[in-house]
Design a protein that fits this description.
With 418 residues, the protein is mainly alpha-helical. It contains 20 helices and no strands.
């Protein structure tokens, strides 16, 4: 049982990704390009398909630019036009889920490079949103099962069911924290998409989940590979990266998601330049999403290029101040800049960076409290005790019942020392 739990943690820490703002959206549906390449006719079945609905492209653009409210509105319209298409349900499901994860504070990029995020508690999910997600999952599965009952080899229905399972796996992992349920759905998604590829090897979109799982399993220690083989899982890093490159290089809808997942894995392989090139490309395509350029900065830092990282963090901050990211929480760039400077022993610069967080129009409460505590610690190190105590008092005024507040109380009693 302990081994299975550990595998579940590694699976999701690796495969959900740095969550670059909404960005480990699992595959939505097969793009028209993929369907054509796979030899799948769009007529007459296309009368119920949302694949060619022009509103889908607009909704996806808003999605990747983190305008979740507008994306939800547009996908609601798509679903109303195509009520019997499970792909339309999956689009809406993914957007509702990602919007809620962002609201919960579960989309911070640095949390997904390893499995440390598993034990972190984010803000509680909204009960109404949780119920809606479950309803959408049930609706999608009902449609998929109806199609598969009529034709068990229907690759579109198999693919759609894998998408639904993958998204429900993400939900049960990050919202419900139900690891065994998450693992079961993740494995189900992989098996569905492997079956799709058995039936039609040219169905490129199906290689996203299969490729990610191959890489994750291929990265496990030998002892754990033997354990997961019991539940029918195997894979190699090489095959995983190959599949992800194929999806990323395709003209399909899933190319964006593949680039995000691929960037995470390349980061784990210390191939920082390649990963950064992917993020730079996406930052250019979706300029209102601050998480892509933020991850570029993180990759500079991981590569040991501190000056370049600091400049990149400052650019994200400045773009946010100029209104390029709307009301999104770009202030995390100031926090990460402070963390970088702190690691470089530039305590004065770190304090100044932490102080920037409060200048954002509507900073995330958790990020603001972390920044105020960290600023106080920097002032203590700089022997500016009066300023430090004021920052600790600010932390308590913001919320006196958090672990951060407890640290602030200790620092008020005794000055912080690095």
């Amino acid at each position: 049982m302990q081994l299975n739990r550990k595998f579940t943690r590694i699976l999701f820490a690796s495969a959900i990704l740095l969550c670059l703002g909404s960005l480990c959206l699992l595959p939505l549906h097969a793009s028209p390009q993929t369907r054509a390449a796979a030899g799948i006719s769009l007529a007459p079945a296309a009368t119920k398909s949302s694949a060619l609905d022009p509103l889908v492209a607009s909704a996806l653009d808003h999605f990747y630019n983190m305008d979740y409210d507008r994306s939800v509105q547009e996908f609601e319209k798509v679903l109303a036009r195509h009520p019997n298409d499970p792909a339309a349900v999956n689009h809406l499901l993914a957007t509702v889920l990602m919007r809620e994860l962002y609201r919960m504070g579960a989309m911070n990029t640095g949390e997904y490079a390893n499995d440390s995020f598993i034990g972190q508690a984010h803000r509680t999910a909204d009960a109404k949103v949780k119920e809606r997600i479950k309803q959408l999952v049930d609706r999608a599965e009902t449609l998929e099962e109806q199609e598969l009952k009529a034709d068990p080899s229907n690759v579109d229905a198999l693919y759609a069911r894998g998408v639904t399972r993958a998204q429900f796996s993400l939900y049960t992992a990050l919202v419900e924290r139900a690891w065994f349920s998450a693992l079961r759905n993740a494995v189900g998604a992989r098996h569905d998409h492997e079956r799709v590829l058995e039936l039609n090897p040219n169905y490129v979109d199906a290689k996203l989940v299969v490729g990610a799982h191959n890489y994750v399993v291929g990265s496990l220690p030998w002892s754990m590979k033997a354990a997961v083989a019991i539940v029918g899982l195997s894979g190699t890093k090489e095959k995983g990266l190959q599949y992800l490159h194929q999806v990323a290089d395709s003209a399909g809808e899933n190319s964006v998601d593949a680039k995000v997942v691929l960037a995470l894995f390349l980061r784990r392989e210390h191939r920082y330049d390649e990963a950064r090139a992917l993020m730079h490309d996406l930052a250019g395509r979706y300029p209102r999403d601050y998480l892509f350029p933020l991850e570029e900065a993180n990759l500079f830092r991981s590569a040991g290029q501190a000056q370049e990282a600091a400049a990149a963090y400052r650019k994200v901050w400045q773009n946010g101040r100029e209104g390029k990211y709307g009301s999104l929480h770009y202030e995390v760039s100031a926090w990460t800049l402070g963390e970088l400077l702190r690691s470089r022993k530039d305590f004065s610069g770190a304090a100044a960076a932490y102080e920037l967080v409060s200048q954002a129009p509507n900073p995330d409460a958790e990020t603001l409290q972390k920044a105020n505590l960290a600023a106080g610690e920097m002032y203590d190190i700089l022997q500016q005790r009066e300023l430090a105590v004021k920052k600790y008092q600010t932390v308590l005024a913001e919320s006196d019942s958090t672990p951060l507040a407890e640290q602030a109380r200790k620092h008020i009693k005794q000055a912080y020392r690095e």
